[in-house]
Amino acid sequence: MSAIAGIQHFYNGQVPEEHSGAMMKTLAQFPADDMKAWGKESTFLGCLSQWITPESVGEVLPFYCEDRKTAITADAIIDNREELFDAFQVDQKVRESIPDSRLILLAYEKWGEDSPKHLIGDFAFMIWDDRRKTLFGARDFTGTRTLYYYFGRQRFAFCTTIEPLLALPYISKSLNEEWLAEYLAITGMIDTAGAETTPYNTIFQVPPSHSITVKNTRVKLTRYCSLRPEKTLHFKSDEEYVEAFQEVFQKAVNSRLRTFRPVASQLSGGLDSGAVTSFAAKQMQAGNKQLHTFSYVPVDDFDDFTPRHLIPDERPFIKETVDHIGGIKDHYFDFKGKDSYSEIDEMLQTVEMPYKFHENSFWLKGMFEKAADHRLGVLLNGDRGNFSISWGSALDYYAVLLNRFKWIKLFQELNYYSLTVGGPRLRRIPLILRRGHPMIDLFFSKNNTWFLPPLINEEFAQRTGIYDKLAQHSINKTGWFKKSNMYEDRRKLFEHIFPWNAGNTFTCKMSLSSQTWKRDPSNDLRVVRFCLSVPEEQFVKDGVDRSLIRRATEHYLPDKVRLNHRFRGVQGADWVHRLKPWWQELTSELVQMCNDDRILKYVDGNLLKAALIKIREGPKDHCATDPDYKNIMRALIVYRFLQKF
To answer: What pLDDT score does 452 carry?
Structure first.
């Protein structure tokens, strides 16, 4: 992978060397195999290169093509190389030596500003077209790579990270209060409902699935990819759906193994990471290569408080998977001494903005650090699997059958479901009714529903008009989408842009810091489009939820994992337990925060003080899911970030 940067002056003024130098000097904090710059007249492009794929070794970036009068700087791994080579009629003898940046240039030459539509992979790039005097770039469909920019009257600048942009003397470091208002008002894991803004007034970002064109002092953003369900597939048998899935998923996994360095897979005890690991191991064994697995486990002195069906320590399931697949070197990390509090500053420095996943931050960050220790090229994961490869909630599907009056099909399925998970079939009818009619569910559960109250100060919310803005994205005053079913949630996920952005920001920047590319086959565009076109009855079948992935991994995964309906892994359950050595220091800082006007003008002070009462009672492991514990930690992360201003 790479970190890219660039500056363009609109009125033919030469880019000062001290400006381009300041950006590259800031990028130099990251590990690199090479660092180069290119400049012509009023345009500067830079690249810090980390060689991951075989083709990237020795690659010249930025690259200027004299014949086409185009220059490119790119942070990209393109996965549909063979398809593109065929489209460009590239000789078979030279295909292995062509780096991905040249493929992007060939795509731009053939399709122009439509070129991102034809690219599959993880990418952010910028191209200077000398003939058209235009800068053109794009970010992949879910934004696995970041691309920030500044746009002023006289110049445009862009970079993979924010700090190099702030190194430019004409970019001010001022807080974007509208961004902060969204962040505080939204209770879910996303940061904002729009993926264009950042915490800085003068810095924006290219949203996922968008291209950017800079010409004649104007900036244009264009959405090139929208993931709406395509035409439904119709095969003759259940086996054909399984075979078609295995083919497209194996292709996605294989393309993410393209590295000359070691590969590991982040493995839990579940289906998604297990599927990724098993398909990857199959391919690597064929090439006489060994796959490593990285798994998080709680610290030894953690006293498990979770319900019986939740498993913080997934080793029994993980070891079953490892033994079944064979040929794997498994690693288990408890990250002893790591915690969500002492690493806040490091996390903020890496992510460059507040984050909401503090319960898991210590081990997610730790995985990248272990990847760096092992000199990995690729760290596989299956984070997007819930909405693609392992889609299929039985009760939600049965609610659809109920609403469509498909009584016979529903009762057949309930018979099978009772045999699978146990219990009488008819007792689930009230629950299915509530799933199918959210208003009924809201009525019955309004007095005991767990929810995270919005952090935002009401006066700040009114001043920014934030709830009116969020309403345009169907987010209400609870700070999240109105009550709906899983199918509606899935549709929103793939039609909107913002749900992907926050998690990918962390992944991209940690990949850069560790020189390891984290890659997810369940997020492959081909896999997502395939799964969206599969009929719903293939995902829930004969009383089995997530049926397609369970059938597709027969012989790949052990039945203890593949057919598990009773237990679910839960990571980060020990996050409060890990804070015990820091509790006095944490409490003191929280007291200071709760009396500091710098944050109280943004955050609900009454909410913070109520949470502080619980904190003063001392650390309680079982409060790991307590809304007050969660919210006061989120507020603390914002508080630390605000101190940078």
So the answer is: 87
